[in-house]
Write a structure and sequence with these properties.
Oligomer: single chain
Main location: other
Subcellular location: Bacterial flagellum basal body
Radius of gyration: 18 Å
Family: Belongs to the flagella basal body rod proteins family.
Structural class: mainly alpha
Distance between the termini: 21 Å
Protein name: Flagellar basal body rod protein FlgB
Keywords: Bacterial flagellum, Cell projection, Cilium, Flagellum
Strand content: under 5%
Number of strands: 2
Length: 120
């Protein structure tokens, strides 16, 4: 039996999107020495809103809108990965993930409390 609420569904999507952001950031970091590699990213807030409005596919991984990040300075080999930018992005994603986990944990605690209250 699966117990979900609209909020827990939204938090699951939020965590999936945050995980996808961390994977993309890790990929950018892994390619820091690849000649010609362009930093990829996506607009987190826009993707999340699209998911919440149902205008995006349910499976984020299949429908991710990943684009090259504009405005970064490229080195002579054409690579524009900035480890400073990626480090900040990874820290931001980790904080977002931790927040999502805490909110989801609280949501399930509330559901369990309601179930136990009904049982009494």
């Amino acid at each position: 039996m699966e117990v979900t609420t609209p909020l827990s569904d939204a938090l699951n999507r939020y965590l999936d999107l945050t995980s996808e952001q961390m994977k993309l950031t890790a990929s950018n970091m892994a390619n820091v020495d690849t000649p010609g590699y362009k930093t990829e990213g996506f607009n987190f807030e826009q993707q999340f809103m699209q998911q919440m409005n149902g205008s995006e596919q349910a499976d984020f991984g299949a429908g991710a809108t990943v684009q090259d990040v504009d405005g970064l300075v490229a080195r002579p080999d054409g690579n524009n990965v900035s480890m400073d930018r990626e480090g900040m992005q990874m820290a931001k994603s980790q904080l977002q993930f931790r927040l999502g986990v805490e909110l989801l944990k609280q949501q399930f605690t509330n559901v369990m409390d309601a179930i136990h209250a009904e049982a009494k």
